[in-house]
Amino acid sequence: MYFFFGLFFRYGVYAAATGGISKAWITNITDKKDTATAINTFPALQSICTMLASSRTGWVYLASFGVGAAFMIAVLLLCS
Fold it and tell me: Whole-model pTM?
């Protein structure tokens, strides 16, 4: 249980240390009138990209398990 609390604590420190950096960077590179839009667009695009990457990873796992199952069935049919 302490291990998981330690992991969550470390993740919290990481999120706190890196969350403001991207907002500060975005604030420095955008115009004053577009700052709020840019700050809110960045996490939205991050979320969309994370969803797409997770979906693609799921398809890769599904394909690899499907190929493994096909080989297992082939071996079972050939050996019996």
Answer: 0.62
Please give the Cα distance from 17 to 12 (Å, whole number). 8
Cα-trace Rg, the chain: 22
- Looking at residue 39, its amino acid is I
- Domain of 32 in residue numbering reads as 2-79
**Tally of domains within the chain:** 1
* Sign of the torsion formed by the C-alpha atoms of 53, 58, 61 and 63: negative
CB neighbourhood size of 26 (10 A): 17
Local mean pLDDT, 10-residue blocks, the chain (80 residues):
95 89 90 93 94 96 94 93
- For residues 29 and 42, the answer to whether their CB atoms sit within 8 Å is no
